[in-house]
User: Which sequence fits this backbone?
């Protein structure tokens, strides 16, 4: 675990798909999903914000597949 990019208490988004991130943000916003930090941030996001964040931070399937195949 790199100390620069990960901590024990803030989860890494790198393994999550866009759909998983979008679902988590919507669930934090609605109160369906519990947390310490995200339930305070997520209600401020519009549906368009959530869509953009999910695409930007979501795991890029094609890209990681290509990296897996690299020598
Ligand atoms: C671009 C902004 C952000 C996005 C898209 C985002 C997204 C997410 C997602 C998808 C999860 C669920 C992860 C999982 O289930 O494995 C999560 C959890 C979490 N995130 Fe964020 N996050 C953002 C900003 C932040 C910031 C700025 C902080 C801290 C200052 C933070 C702290 C946390 C923590 C502590 C959790 C665990 C649940 C909780 O206690 O609320 N996040 N986040």
Assistant:
């Amino acid at each position: 675990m790199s100390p620069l990019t990960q901590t024990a208490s803030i989860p890494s988004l790198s393994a999550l798909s866009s759909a998983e991130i979008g679902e988590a943000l919507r669930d934090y916003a609605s109160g369906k999903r519990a947390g310490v930090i995200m339930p305070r941030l997520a209600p401020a996001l519009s549906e368009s914000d959530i869509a953009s964040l999910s695409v930007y931070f979501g795991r890029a399937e094609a890209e990681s597949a290509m990296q897996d195949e690299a020598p």
Q: What stands out?
A: Residues 18-59 form one domain. The chain has a mean pLDDT of 86.
